[in-house]
UniProtKB/TrEMBL annotation:
Function: Necessary for normal cell division and for the maintenance of normal septation.
Organism: Flectobacillus rivi
Protein name: Probable GTP-binding protein EngB
Similarity field: Belongs to the TRAFAC class TrmE-Era-EngA-EngB-Septin-like GTPase superfamily. EngB GTPase family.
Cofactor: Mg(2+)
EngB-type G domain ranges (all copies): 22-197
CDD domains on file: YihA_EngB (cd01876)
Keyword terms of this UniProt record: Cell cycle, Cell division, GTP-binding, Magnesium, Metal-binding, Nucleotide-binding, Septation
Pfam families with a match to the protein in the record: MMR_HSR1
PANTHER family: ENGB-TYPE G DOMAIN-CONTAINING PROTEIN, MSS1/TRME-RELATED GTP-BINDING PROTEIN
Top-level taxon of origin: Bacteria
NCBIfam families: GTPase_YsxC
């Protein structure tokens, strides 16, 4: 799929305020600083469409981007960020949980995981919860440019081993880099395929 148009639409703090749920939607989620906003920019090939930052906790709302005048990409706040207060964290969790479970046009959630790190409990449990709620997701390993291919493959094997403790098979996954565009075409092809099957 070629990207012919990409624009920022709106930011909201509740799923009820989001745009009309009549187009296929894909959400990017994961720990703070994992590279959600950067990956969105890399996918649409626009440097500053989604705001990125070296400081975790940059994205704080549900951000809708309209792509090819046909589907939505959504940038969500990161979870598991220790430096926000408990009250603040619970507020984010409620916002994200409601969005994920009640947004009717959400076709697939992309769970981003930094390929450099060993499996983190918060990510594994988050995917567990998606599964329990029957919410489709796939894994996007980020920052692959920071490791050698050998190291990437080694970490993928470790991740698969952990996932197979709770899942019958390894969920669909992509290996990406926002720096060199690795995985971009594969994600777009996957979205294209899902778009074809979307019924509002
Ligand atoms: P929050 O909105 O705070 O939750 O963060 P985020 O997940 O949106 O991360 P963001 O895209 O802002 O990126 C965080 C940092 O990681 C930035 O300094 C990015 O430049 C860097 N980064 C993101 N993706 C990549 C990548 O693929 N490769 C490399 N080398 N750096 C990356
Ligand atoms: Mg962000």
């Amino acid at each position: 799929m070629k990207i012919t148009q990409a624009s920022f639409l709106m930011s909201n703090s509740t799923y009820q305020q989001c745009p009309k749920a009549d187009k296929p939607e894909y959400a990017f989620i994961g720990r703070s600083n994992v590279g959600k906003s950067s990956l969105i920019n890399s996918i649409v090939r626009k440097k500053n469409l989604a705001k990125t930052s070296q400081t975790p906790g940059k994205t704080q709302l549900i951000n809708h981007f309209f792509i090819n005048e046909d589907w939505y990409l959504v940038d969500l706040p990161g979870y598991g960020y220790a430096k926000v207060s408990k009250v603040e964290r619970e507020k984010f969790e409620k916002m994200i949980n409601e969005y994920l479970t009640l947004r009717t046009n959400l076709v697939c959630t992309f769970v981003l995981i930094d390929v450099r790190h060993e499996p983190q409990k918060v990510d594994v449990e988050f995917m567990q919860k998606l599964g329990e709620n029957g919410l489709p997701f796939c894994i996007v390993f980020t920052k692959a440019d920071k490791l050698s291919n050998t190291a990437v493959n080694k970490n993928l094997a470790i991740y698969e081993q952990i996932m197979l403790e709770t899942w019958e098979e390894m969920p669909q996954y992509f290996v990406t880099s926002s720096v060199n565009g690795t995985g971009r075409e594969e994600i777009l092809a996957y979205i294209d395929e899902l778009n074809q099957g979307f019924k509002p």
